[in-house]
Fold this protein.
Amino acid sequence: TTSASPKKSDLRCMGCVTVGLSLNSKNFSKMLQTCLYQCDRHRVILEAEERYKEKLRKLAFCNNSSSAPYQKIVLTPIRKGNLNTES
Amino acid sequence: MFRSCSAWFSQSVGRELCDFWVAEGGVITNHHDADYLFSSDASCPDTQRIHESRDYIEGKATVFHSCYLSSNASSEMKQTVLLGHFILPPACLQEEIKRKIGSFIWEQMNNSQIEQLEIL
Ligand SMILES: [Zn+2]
């Protein structure tokens, strides 16, 4: 049943309980996104990063999506504040 | 403790931390192949490039603050250091994040831990 109260183990933020070397730069973001519970710190960071990535995606799309986004972005001067959210 | 792990280091990371990584069995490689991306400054151009890369947008290139390694190097914190507490977000997001959750863990780390590492 989906409405059942979550198990206690579900209420732990994986970003805050995982020690050792099972996490790395390649899998960290995916792990955190699929984690059922995120603490305030990780949720805030994740949300800010997702908004920023969305802007980058749009920017890359506008600049023609045929090549790697960062190359296009690096060649295009970004006005200061463009990537800032709610400033 | 980092045997068979590979890492990329930003130029902003001090030499002693790269040496520590190698001394603990880690390998240093390019940012595309590396399991771990370490930087001590999100506004450093090499780190900014990662934060604008396709890998990052696709969620496959989280950058961690190199203080993670300093913490591992200080003996009393060994085995209890959480990688997840050392996320280094893009420079343009840090003020916004700090307004909501306070300072980052690497800003709270005192200089004695860094000095301790230099003695090693
Ligand atoms: Zn957390």
